[in-house]
Amino acid sequence: MSTKIAVAKGDGIGPEIMAAVLRIFEAANVPLEYEYVEMGKSYFDAGHSTGMTPAAKETIERLGLLFKGPMETPKGKGVKSINVTARKVWNTYANQRDFRSLNGVDTVFSKAGIPINLTIVRENIEDTYGGIEHLLTNDVAVGRRIITRPGSAQVIRYAFEMARRKGYTKLACGHKANIMKLTDGMFLETFYEIAKDYPDIESSDIIVDDLCMKLVSRPEMFQAIVLTNLQGDIVSDLCAGLVGGLGFAPSANIGDNISIFEAVHGTAPDIQGKGIANPTALLLSGILMLRYLGYTNAAANIENSLLYTLEQGVHTGDFGDKSTPSANTETFADAVIANLGQAPVKGAVIAQPDMEVKANHDHPTKNKLTVVKKDTKEEIVGVDVFVESNKQPNELAEIAQKKLNENTQLVMISNRGTQVWPTGSIYTELVNEYRIRVEKKDGGEISQKEILHIAGELSEDFKICSVEFLMKFDGKIGYTLAQGQ
Ligand code: NAD
Hints:
By secondary structure, the protein is an alpha/beta fold. The protein has helices spanning 14-27, 41-45, 54-63, 82-89, 108-111, 149-165, 183-195, 208-217, 229-242, 280-292, 296-311, 329-338, 393-403, 448-458; strands spanning 3-8, 32-36, 65-68, 94-100, 117-123, 133-137, 140-143, 170-175, 202-207, 224-227, 250-254, 259-263, 378-388, 408-415, 418-421, 433-440, 463-473, 476-477. Strand 8 (170-175), helix 7 (183-195) and strand 9 form a beta-alpha-beta unit.
């Protein structure tokens, strides 16, 4: 029985590499049927603000699976990236990127005889990719970094399950919880909570800068790493570099209902239309997709042929032995087709189900909402009011104190996160946005009304940039202290 999937050819080199990959699928008798969908730059240009037609959205939601070429998001038109929008709107929360040394693709590590075989699982929805940014003053821009318990749990559980399926013995969590104590702290805490359900997998954590250093010096230390979105994005491109570049980096965006398979690289406008693009990354993504659909024999057959082809020294212009002529996109695909049935001398794969198999997709009737813990005791104990001002910290404190009533007190003023009042250094350089922290005098609870009243009073002297409540959750403070506080 065949499965119907949505296919978007993409922009730039997208249609060229997609045609090559689908030709290989056809030659390998892959039981897939395609519904082509209208998505990409020309659909933005035609006035579709999301970069896709309503029919494309309907098809993808109905079929639950999108195989896509790279797409270009028009610059300077204020539209959001179609790739990021697709991942977020359809909640493809786990981005799995597999990296391994390929015979025929020379890298520093392959020359040194160090094999690389690791998987990055990147959270795909949250973090700075929420895209919530504001210019608060002409000089100060802020972005919100959103990390949630349900979002972290989804991707972390996926990573443990994936590690188990692949027969890995360990999973590391990359993070920066030493600096981002509440956001990355929540991700890390969730990691160790979920790790308790997987005693067969050795769990560890590593600070992301140390991780980068170790990945380039001792990549064999790692099997699988789970990270938040932005850090995962950067670390996975680093890993692409370890195995020969973006031409070899496949990616699966996995959700509970809809999943998207694509190459990590972009539209390569510099080589568009020349017919010389390397289809390997999209082919590897297609192979991941076949496993995901349960077509493990076809996946292994095509993968072995690709590995054999690479091992034979067939290469496109972006890699391989420059002294031998390069194949183009078409002739590279021809070689993979001609080699179907062959297996590489080293690293042949067997038809094992190492991807989650999801043939059937649910069609929800309402948006899913997850609340992890419902009985937490929450108290508001103060407020941070962010204001625009060119004044010195002590002048600001004097004005703010006059605005407070006898029950509230000015606790601290900071600038760019560094405390500048009641104590600070004359060498701290300032910008025109301050944080004024106010708390109840007895350390007790304060009402939302009182807080908004304080902000209202301060607005008589300052432009209010934003207001954040200071909260305690089951008695634990839910905000960070200023540097130097
Ligand atoms: P890019 O990945 O398109 O290109 C970077 C370099 O790698 C270029 O020199 C290119 O020629 C080369 N390259 C990339 N893929 C190749 C392949 N298959 N074969 C041979 N060489 C290849 O990155 P970019 O130039 O930063 O981005 C170009 C466009 O792609 C932008 O509009 C960007 O937004 C978009 N983009 C889309 C996706 C996606 O659809 N998921 C991902 C990244 C970038």
